[in-house]
Specification:
By secondary structure, the protein is α+β, with helices and mostly antiparallel strands. It has 8 helices and 12 strands. Helix 1 (about 5-10) packs parallel to helix 3.
């Protein structure tokens, strides 16, 4: 039987500083803000504790932090934890049934999105039990190493022309509606540390998402003739 977020918080209640739980009317207000159902598992968690303070990473709040801006990528989400530099760990929520899904690290410098955890329980474990969670020190790795790999190599991004001929109908049909010069990232089968860059075409680069699917289209920078020459000379 899988562990629930509440059960995990109860396990660490002696070593972590838990925030007070929410009364029912505040949970109802939170649901109105989300504009989708709050699953029973999350409702029970909120009634027990609205989050916790971590000496290492700061305050995790299940009702969210302010100032999260990447709402085009995650229109239905809760910003669980800021990193103090304008970046956030955010949980993606299914707008139809309210299910809390994957947790991502949404970073603006460099401008990348990284998959942090498959669910809220895993994320809580990564914060409260960093030394004993596999992989070890997962938040530090994502923030310090994964962002660099993705920004440099973008291994999970494919050109839109390749995505259009994908055997996966979800990817190919989405790519058919994207302009030339876009890349496509399919994070559905991806694991910890995967992701994509979203700002190589500049701060106003266009990013599209295929509904609630974890499939994204990202505008790419088109190198100029001179930039191609300089890049060739450096290599």
């Amino acid at each position: 039987m899988s562990v629930t977020p509440r059960q995990l918080l109860e396990k660490f209640s002696q070593s972590a500083t838990l925030l007070p739980g929410l009364p029912e009317h505040e949970i109802a207000q939170f649901q109105q803000q989300l504009r989708c159902p709050v699953p029973e598992e999350i409702r029970q968690t909120l009634s027990f504790s609205a989050g916790f303070n971590s000496n290492t990473f700061g305050a995790v709040r299940f009702t969210g932090h302010q100032d999260f801006e990447l709402t085009d990528l995650f229109p239905q989400s809760v910003a669980l934890l800021p990193d103090g530099c304008g970046n956030f760990w955010v949980v993606d929520i299914n707008p139809k049934n309210g299910t809390w899904g994957l947790v991502f690290y949404a970073c603006h410098d460099p401008a990348v999105i990284v998959l942090q955890a498959r669910d809220l329980v895993t994320f809580i474990s990564q914060v409260l039990d960093a030394e004993n969670t596999e992989p070890r020190d997962a938040l530090r790795y994502v923030r310090g190493e994964a962002v660099k790999i993705i920004w440099r190599d973008d291994p999970w991004l494919v050109p839109v022309r390749d995505a259009r001929v994908s055997q996966d109908s979800v990817v190919s049909q989405f790519a058919e509606h994207l302009p030339e010069g876009f890349g496509v990232a399919d994070l559905r089968p991806a694991g910890f540390g995967s992701g994509f860059s979203w700002g190589k075409a500049g701060p106003n680069a266009e990013v599209r998402r295929h509904g609630a699917e974890l499939v994204f289209g990202i505008q790419q920078r088109v190198p100029s003739f001179l930039r191609k020459i300089f890049a060739t000379r450096r290599s």
